[in-house]
Amino acid sequence: MTMQAGLNPTPLKLRVRAIETLAPRLKRLSLASADGTALPPPPPGSHLTLTLPIDGGRTRSYSVVSPTHERDAYSLIVRHADRSRGGSAYIHHHLAVGDLIDSAVPTSQFSLHSLARKHLLIGGGIGLTPLLSFLHALQIRGRALELHQICRADEADAFRGLLEPFAGPDIHLHTGRAGLDLQAILSRQPLGAHLYVCGPEPLMTAVEAAATSVGWPASAQHQESFGASGGAPFIVRLARSGRDVAVGEDESLLEALEAAGANPPALCRGGACGECVTVVIDGEPDHRDHFLSVDEKASGRLVMPCVSRAKTALLTLDL
Amino acid sequence: MTIAFKPNESFRPPFAYSNSDAGILRFPFPFPSDAYMYSVNLEPHVRGGPTEAFSAVFDVDEHYIAECRERDLVLGQDPKRCLVLPHMMSAQWDTVELIMESLAEDYPDLFSLERDGDRWTWTNRPLQIRDAFVFGEANSLPCPPFEYITRQAQGDFTLQDQRGGDLFMDGGMVTTQADWSLAFDLGMSFHEWHGPVPLAHEAGVFDRALQYLLRLQYGKPVRRLNWTLTVNPRLDTSPENYPNWGPDKTTVTPANVGEKLHVRVELQTLFRLPRSNAILFGIRAYLASFAELVRVPKWGRRLHRVLRDLPPELVAYKGLTRYHTTAVDYLAGFDDGAATTFGIAPESGLQEG
What we know:
The complex is a heterodimer of chains A (319) and B (353). With 319 residues, chain A is α/β, with parallel strands linked by helices.
């Protein structure tokens, strides 16, 4: 058996082993290595960046939900986005068992704090996916945890099924945010607890506000967004070549740049790693990343094209 | 690949250590040009480089058996050379997995790993070890997992936990170090344990290096070279044992400098670990005497120029003051002033020793 834990200069070639429909808009994929060898262990909270045959080959990232020790296949759960940028629609309508997919090695920007006394996990909708891999890791390590997951009422059965292996008094499923008293949950946690939130932007903003209001230090709060979620179209001008590139409402700035042949370095594609940071020459960025500091965002001089957009109709970049 | 091991070498008095001709040519000579200064000299750790020492994830050479025995001797005298804080248990298993899988893949005739779920069997032929254990169950191994596997690898290792935008040295196996102490540094942050290094802080080297390492990706390890000089082929130049090796500095003479002074190179590797999100830092030390290195004409010329022009702060920090002049005078005899090509690789074969 060839192992590749140490050095993975080449991408992975994966084969779709199974596709399971969990709910009308939720599918679970099992992706094995095409040649049957053991895959690199997926870190807790990691995502897999797949190259999908849409628009001639675009990359999309999805969280790995299987535990680190499972190396025969990666498990992913993909929601058909309401405004799919092509990736989830392709997976839901075209991907078939046996198909081959190129993938990068799974990498993590969202990791568990090794010294946390307790891990408080709050998920919204498909934001459960990285938290599932956390649950596996925390169960193996025997750590104290509490999970609150919000889902739509019509998908409660599917989410209950996903949480069933971890069921217990510390695992809570809520249909809708109404029944969730964030202040109360955050207030009763012990000193040394760490908070992990993954879900839609309004949930993350609400949790962050509640946590801060009851005195949680920023160093104990960890967030992972879904990445780009689209927005109003705008034009990006590449200052070095003078070219204008249109950014559509359903694509990210990074994707538009890549489609135009300008390939800024990019890694996590989720606004966390800092790799794609780009200098803004003119126009006002709409910051949606977790990398730039408050001051850097306020200066308007830098932008993370993987998740951020423009508030102005034209954004001029030093590219 | 066949390696002719030298199991009877000794890294303490009476010293018995030398490099074969092939061993000299595979040495990771640390100077790509004729002048040296600190820099963030990190590059991807891929298989292949200017010499054979860069061919494997964890390099095994002719000194393997002797270096593992030296580690056992040091640990017997001072068990605190291996320390791992309790929250690093998943990093211990990450290290077991990485080193076992890498050695088995790079040296299939020396090491093998059989896996049946979490039931693993590890075979180390050079050290005549064969152990069956349960991955994840620490008491299924004869000693803690990190100590178990690093007793079977050349070079020191430390474990860095990543928390709150910083790295903390929360574990290690350190028996072959260049005058630093794990017991002293344990638990320190990145800037704290680098505190004593001169000049580099002011140049922003550590700020940039930390930002880079915080983003180190799993599956994309990096490496760099570091160096110093060591009197005698001694691996354990630790603060704990300074009385044993400090006085050696007074023994270098023009008559013995070629054999006594060794360039000590550290091939440093950094790996993001999957379960723990920690970083494994490998510090693989290589020793070659001046007399061995000057047999590569390019290295003799370059070593002379680098040492002659080394900033005084670095001469002091690396502890070279006492014999610096003797070393430069000796090396001048191997520097004809000819130009050298950029890079580490030798330009030609060995001169007769």
